[in-house]
Amino acid sequence: MTRLRFLRSFLSLAPALPALLFLAGCDTASTGEDANVEPRMGRGATISETTLFERSAAQLNADFAAAGLPLSARFDVTAYKVVYETIDPQGGVTQASGALFVPRNAPGARPLASYQHGTLTRKDEAPSAGGGEQLIGLILAADGYVAALPDLLGLGDSPGLHPYVHAAASASAAIDMLRAATDFAAAHEIDLSGQLFLTGYSQGGYTAMAAHRELEANHRDEFQLTASAPMAGPYDLSGVMAATFTERKTHPSPFYLPYTVLAYNDVYGLFDSPSEMFAAPYDALLPPLFDGTHGGGEINDVMPEIPIDIFTPAFVAAFQDDSNHPLRLRLRENDVYDWTPQAPMQLYHCAQDQHVPPENTQVALQRFQQRGAAKVEFIDPLPTGGHGACVGPSLLFAKFWFDSFVAGAAKRAPAFDAAAVGQAFQAWMGN
Questions:
Q1: Higher-confidence residue: 221 or 6?
Q2: Residues 65/13, Cβ–Cβ less than 8 Å
Q3: 136, 59 contact by CB (below 8 A)
Q4: CA–CA separation, 67 vs 61, rounded Å?
Q5: Taking a C-beta distance cutoff of 8 angstroms, is the pair 262, 290 a contact?
Q6: How many CB atoms lie within 10 A of CB 269?
Q7: 211 and 125 in contact (C-beta within 8 Å)?
Q8: Over the range 163-195, which residues count as b (16 or more CB within 10 Å of their CB) and which as e?
């Protein structure tokens, strides 16, 4: 659930982009360039679109080669920032933003792919704000996908606190970004094939799972999901994740814990004052750090060695002793594994993941199988890899799997050394 720092580092390997490639401004009307396109009203309606930058296939191929990625760019790519209407967790009207990556001069109808980012606490780390995960959009669009990367609520140009691991809000923001993307395509005369792919890593795996469930439950008349690839997500919040953070053990990303509690308080009103749950000095130290301007590392620096020690002993005892504790009930409400996927799904998780325990994926897989889901597979792309090392091979395997569904496309799945790719990504993250 950590931010994918390797992506920002990857882009730094390439020569500096000319300033003209990063075109700030360049706003167009919310209906795009085609006056014959009827503008959408309500959820998913485009508020604004801005050109971010362009990248040629030649430049991308140089980037891929420098990074040692077994990829080949077929198309130039233009990246846009899209601001659109969506709903908040209470159903009120709000706005969200995201990045949209479009292949230029790609013939025929194009598939649509949606990538969900990992855990972010700073608004300016979101995909539309230049965050490192823009690389995923470039990889997908360079091979012909129209790639939508939602920032989600509370990040990018969206107000307020991000509703971290809140299933309904995660799904609604992702689906409304799909609506904005389809409207963009229509307005700019980009033909979409009707194929739709969902993926995401860490928190993004959770978001992809929530969006897959919501699409199949309530939006079949609008979107036909082709396949999804949730990766390393905390699907079992009330079980695996609650047990992980109530153990008296260290954790590599302890800020996940207060992020979840503060986000849920913002949505559900769990307490009137942080002091009702948080022990001193954390009741005063932690809440201000989730204002969208502080990174996860900065928040980790003020966390105690044992994450659960941010709470009062009375709160910890009540949570552990009461199976119907208000926070437990809300965590249970936001688990995302008790349903039956219909579209093909591949679940990715490395066995040595210490950030998001792989038991999350095991619980989800077992429940899916019990419910008769016939098209769900589990993939461990790097059995010796942890959360960071697993990112690279997971993303590449998922992308090559999506390629196998694309109409008229050969199964472009070049062999690569997953361990070497994982090591390269870890090096880019500075580990």
A1: 221
A2: no
A3: no
A4: 10
A5: yes
A6: 9
A7: no
A8: bbbbbbbbbbbbbbbbbbbbbbbbbbebeebeb
pLDDT top residue among 314 and 31: 314
**Can you list the alpha helix ranges (DSSP code H) found in 128-281?**
134-142, 167-187, 203-218, 242-246, 256-268
Q: Write down the pLDDT at residue 2.
A: 43
Distance CA 249, CA 244 (A): 8
The rounded distance, in Å, linking the Cα atoms of 309 and 314 is 11
Q: Which two tokens stand for residue 205?
A: 């795996």
Strands of 272-392 (E only): list them. 345-348, 376-379
- 239: DSSP letter: I
CA 264, distance to chain mean position in Å, is: 19
CB 49 within 8 A of CB 184: yes
Do 279 and 312 form a contact (C-beta atoms < 8 A)? yes
- Residue 22 pLDDT greater than 50, yes or no: no
Continuous segment of H or E residues that includes residue 49:
strand 46-55
Indicate the residue type of 341: P
Q: Token digits for 384?
A: 């010796």
SS3 310: helix
Distances (CA, A) of 103 to 33, 54, 58: 17, 10, 13
Tokens 């249970």: give the residue.
Answer: 332
Please determine, for residue 371, whether its predicted confidence score (pLDDT) is greater than 50: yes
Strand partners, 199: 115, 229
Cβ-Cβ contacts under 8 Å for 35 (sequence gap 6 or more): none
Both tokens assigned to 325 = 């504790």
CA–CA dist 246, 240 (Å, integer):
10
Q: What is the pTM of this model?
A: 0.91
Band of the pLDDT at 308, cuts 50, 70, 90? Answer: very high
Give the single-character DSSP code of 289.
G
Run of H or E residues at 67:
helix 57-67
Cα torsion angle, 173, 295, 267, 118, sign:
positive
